[in-house]
UniProtKB/TrEMBL annotation:
It holds the Pfam family Aa_trans. Keywords: Membrane, Transmembrane, Transmembrane helix. It is found in: Membrane. The chain crosses the membrane at residues 56-76, 82-104, 147-166, 186-203, 210-231, 251-268, 280-305, 325-348, 368-388, 408-427. It comes from Parthenolecanium corni. PANTHER family: AMINO ACID TRANSPORTER, AMINO ACID TRANSPORTER TRANSMEMBRANE DOMAIN-CONTAINING PROTEIN. GO terms for molecular function: L-amino acid transmembrane transporter activity. Its main location: membrane. InterPro entries: AA_transpt_TM. This is Amino acid transporter transmembrane domain-containing protein.
Amino acid sequence: MHELKLDVIRRASVVSKDRFSQKDDDEIDNDLVLDLHKAKILPVYKSKNGISWAECIFQLFFSIQGPAFFVLPGGFKDVGYLMGILGAFGVAIFYIYMMQLYLWCEKELRRRHKIIEETHLSIYSMVELVFMNTAGQRRLAKVINAYLKYEIILSWSFSLSFAQLFICQNVGVILRYFNYKTSDRIILLSLFPMTTLISWVPNLKVMSSIAYFSSLMMVLVMFEIIFFIIVDPSPVSQVEVIGDMSKLSTFLATVFFTIVATPLVFPLKNEMKEPKKFGNLFGSFSSSMMILIILNVFFSLFGYIKYGQETSDNILENLPGNPIMMASNGLLTLAMIAGGAISFFVVFETVWNDELELLFCNSPNIKLYEYAARTLINLLITLVPLIIPTCEIFVNLISSFSYPFDSIVVPILLQAILLWRALVDYYR
């Protein structure tokens, strides 16, 4: 089994022959597998207790759902409820198809390179495998993977900044209920010590517990707000069927931002007891996406029907000022503050492990530098919403520069190359 694993790694990973020539086959052990795993080239591992189909849906739903959920009703106001419904489902189907391209590429690479199921592939390793024939292709693979890495840093950082902007707006709503008015920037700066303390938590297990609890609280408050909105909707005549089509691109970008989960696709698939149930027609990914988009459309449609042209960019600002709603808003705000723990962990671990740790690894004060880096990264994330104070600009920024490359460009590129090679092999 060890020889088989080594043979698979040799065929499927992009590791120079010089590295193998330094040791005999008998001397190459699990350290090599660990190095490959850390390098994100070809991780090899098995889950002791894989997750089920339903557990995968649960994890995807709770990981994706966030503050953008409350921005969509404003998008329905801009484009009209008909274009809102069609656009939301269109984006969801398109995104599911893009992820299906990734899964097809994984299947094709396993067939071509005879990669066993125990060898888990990632987006990084798939890029390495596709661009492995020449030195020029390998250099291109390094460029693509470097861009993917920094795109993840940017997307998660911008998402954290967007969440902080949303939190400031919610706190502003609560303060106005108590007849106290202040600017969002002052609120943002006052929340900085709290977010800094959360960023100092070094334990992933603790962060995960906080994040799951906050996600649960967020979903409960969402359903409470949905119940309130559908109790007494306004007449349909107050809303538009088709609105301002010049804002359609912004709306589609908002929907895309609401459902995107590309970094979670392969990690969750690899953890499933039956990975084949992840990507089929009624698999975990497709099911979770459709549940999410149906909930988003339902909430956005009824929110728009209730408030009509008065629908705010953040629908929480439309809710009545009563103690129950303010308490729910406060719980939602705390949940979003705590929910940033995992997102910050991803950003910090990527920056620290890949860039900064090597600079300070020999220093006796490495812990001090680590916490200084945590504070500085959190400060930069906090400064972004000070410069960009509106949700609409934020969503456009994130959707334009962060997600399209790994969610659209890369799967299309990988499939095109693999299909071309399959055609060449067939005619040969």
